[in-house]
Design a protein that fits this description.
Layout: H1 12-24, H2 35-38, E1 43-52, E2 58-69, E3 75-82, H3 87-103, E4 109-116, H4 124-138, E5 147-151, H5 157-171, H6 195-210
Parallel strand pairs: 3-4, 3-5
Antiparallel strand pairs: 1-2, 2-4
Length: 218
């Protein structure tokens, strides 16, 4: 069922995605012949992220960037910092990003990234060093026309600002469009921080109206 040597039988997130693909396949008619493309990510990158800690020691963290499909445009997807991040999870999230951008007819593909780390255990300086090193390791596959990271679990506008600055240093000029979710004064969008929560609110409101459920007291 997996067809990929680096996927294990208990890699639940990726297998869940494959099961979803299998369920919808009978309804795709002439598009069925293309379904195999979705079952294999275009590019999977695993990187070592060594940083000097504040106490002078060196610690190594595992980082990922997966570009599932770039057929519709550059990859789009967040970067998460969490101690439980793994390749299987990042692959599945990148695949779901492919589906989401396609459903909304956006000119993007699906991608996702992450580092296995608990950001709450790092000082601000350690977090910056981690971000800049991770960015340098994946910089050859990201960019406005390649793959555009965004904030996710454990990351925020400050992390996006460090990514933008590190990537820009390698290009020799400022590239604000390499990430979304950056600070407003660095070219970020107003309302970005609250966008996900606003989407949940709007969805809930529309569902409540559809089933005639009063919002007050719900």
């Amino acid at each position: 069922m997996t067809n990929l040597s680096y996927i294990q039988a208990n890699d639940a997130a990726w297998l869940t995605f494959l099961e979803q693909i299998e369920r919808v396949t009978p309804y795709l008619n002439h598009l069925k012949e293309h379904i195999e493309v979705l079952k294999r990510p275009k590019r999977v990158l695993i990187v070592d992220v060594p940083i000097v800690m504040d106490d002078g020691s060196i610690q190594h963290f595992e980082g990922y960037r997966v570009q599932h499909n770039l057929s519709r445009g550059p990859g789009k997807g967040g970067i998460r910092y969490h101690p439980d991040v793994n390749l299987n999870e990042v692959m599945a999230l990148s695949a779901w990003m492919t589906i989401k951008t396609a459903v909304l007819n956006l000119p993007f593909g699906g991608a996702k990234g992450g580092v296995r780390v608990d950001p709450r255990q790092l000082s601000p300086r350690e977090l910056e060093r981690l971000t800049r090193r991770y960015t340098s390791e994946i910089s050859h596959i990201i960019g406005p026309q390649k793959d555009i990271p965004a904030p996710d679990v454990g990351t925020n506008q400050h992390v996006m600002g460090w990514i933008m600055d590190t990537y820009s240093s390698g290009q020799g000029h400022t590239v604000t469009s390499v990430v979304t979710g950056k600070p407003v004064h660095l070219g970020g969008s107003l309302g970005r921080v609250k966008a996900t929560g606003r989407g949940v609110f709007v969805t809930g409101r529309e569902v409540a109206a559809k089933i005639n459920l009063p919002i007050e007291g719900a």
